[in-house]
Amino acid sequence: MSKILREHIEKITSLTDEEFEFVLSHFSLKRFLKHQFLIQEGDFVNNDFFILNGLLKASHRNEENKEHILQFATENSWITDPQAYNNQTIATLNIQCLEDGNSLFITLENKEKLCSSLHKMESFFRKKTTKEHILLQRRVLCLISNNAKDRYEDLLKQYPSLIQRIPKTMIASYLGVSRETLSRLITN
Amino acid sequence: MSKILREHIEKITSLTDEEFEFVLSHFSLKRFLKHQFLIQEGDFVNNDFFILNGLLKASHRNEENKEHILQFATENSWITDPQAYNNQTIATLNIQCLEDGNSLFITLENKEKLCSSLHKMESFFRKKTTKEHILLQRRVLCLISNNAKDRYEDLLKQYPSLIQRIPKTMIASYLGVSRETLSRLITN
DNA sequence: GATAAATTGTGATAAAAGTCACACTAATTA
DNA sequence: TAATTAGTGTGACTTTTATCACAATTTATC
Predict the structure, then answer these.
(1) How many Å apart are B151 CA and D20 C1'?
(2) Gap between the Cα atoms of A140 and B175, Å rounded
(3) Residue B71: closest CA among chain A residues belongs to which residue?
(4) Is domain B3-118 given the CATH code 2.60.120.10 in the classification?
């Protein structure tokens, strides 16, 4: 199953077998089940999760207990509470599983060690983060410039297959619209 | 003036004098004047700009020619069209100066060279990008969970002094609200 | 200092989106 | 398979926000 991680890294930086073994030694495997929390608000956040298969969401609950979804993660993507992970503080996000699956996770300590000892991996994480930054900027632009309908259509275009796996209520929460409004946008 | 860049980098990674000289040799100085474009939609994007002083905005114009502001950049921050810069494609954003100032810019080629030859700088850029990612995620959360008034107040709290230097029309564009609505939020 | 350009506030109205309530269906699970 | 639970659609209504228009003011420029 670790082949998935290797292929993921090698889309950016190629590795020798020895190097990949070394990289892998910094990760641990974690299975997860639907409804399970990988991170819960208030937890100390040690891990960044690379998802091998399955589906998860990262979300925040505001004072009125309304949930807002920041991210979905599926095979070949990473998920954590970045603020809490990188600053070694308490989580403000919840990361919860929507489908059973498996992940390889890495502690911040191990990530820093890995980056120090293998320049290629420092480069990998820099480039990966840069790509994520570009996607997030695109999402911000979509949020400030489009109405609910256009945001939904943009999402459909960007992740057509992912949408099929996610309840509309959660899509609405990701888009920043009420579920009723989204429902009317789709059927009309 | 390059001291500003050195202090900026050394908030994350310390450098020897020789190392900093080496880093600096990868940058060039560019002065800019109010109204000037550093990047215009359709340009080929070569440079990432580190701002020494002055004020700029990065924005996008949609089909209806409405402008939406993605970012403001001031002293000690970086600005470019990340999508175009990193993928070496044509700009979809405009970067325009709101106040005269100076910048140190680096081409993608030089950034990659620098990262390859000086591991510390690869680490610097990784950590800087991670911090930016955290801030962008915070902005996304704000956009999907707050109404116009709360978004404005959040911005005020986060960048109280910056707001003073920017016309309300542009603040509105950054928040994703019409200028009229923002005006009413502030006065009422 | 005069003129032009940019910025801002505000009224009237329209459009978009949110909220509450309820019924129906699909999916889980005991 | 019966009983819960989760997800969805839709009507009625309210609230928020956008749009258009115009006046006033501030700021830049010749």
Answers:
(1) 25
(2) 10
(3) A137
(4) yes
Beta bridge partners of B181: none
pLDDT for the residue numbered B95: 96
- Residue A23: CA count within 13 A, CB half-sphere: 25
Residue B188 has pLDDT above 90, yes or no: no
Nearest residue, CB atoms, B136 vs list A119, A137, A173:
A137
- Kindly report the pTM of this predicted structure: 0.95
Distances B69 to A133, B65, B96, B177 between C-alpha atoms, Å: 16, 13, 11, 11
State the Cα–Cα distance between residues B147 and A16, nearest whole angstrom. Answer: 51
Distance of A144 CA from D23 C1′ (whole Å)? 29
pLDDT, tens digit, for every residue of B40-76? 999 999 999 999 999 999 999 998 889 999 999 999 9
**CB count in 10 Å sphere of residue A77:** 15
Fold of A3-121: Jelly Rolls (2.60.120)
Distance from the first to the final alpha carbon of chain A: 43
The helix or strand, by DSSP H or E, that contains position A17, with its residue range, turns out to be helix A17-24
Q: Where are the domains of chain A?
A: 3-121
Amino acid, res. B70: L
For chain B, the straight-line distance linking the first and the last C-alpha, in angstroms and rounded, comes to 43
Indicate the SS3 state at residue A137.
helix
The answer to whether B183 and B148 are in contact (CB under 8 A) is no
Phi-psi group of A122: left, alpha or beta (phi > 0 → left; psi -120 to 50 → alpha; rest → beta):
alpha
Q: Is B128 left (phi over 0), alpha (psi -120 to 50) or beta?
A: alpha
Rounded Cα–Cα distance for residues B184 and B152 (Å): 12
- Chain B residues in contact with A122 by the CB 8 A cut-off are 119, 122-123, 126
How confident is the model over A120-167, as pLDDT tens digits?
Answer: 999 999 999 999 999 999 999 999 999 999 999 999 999 999 999 999
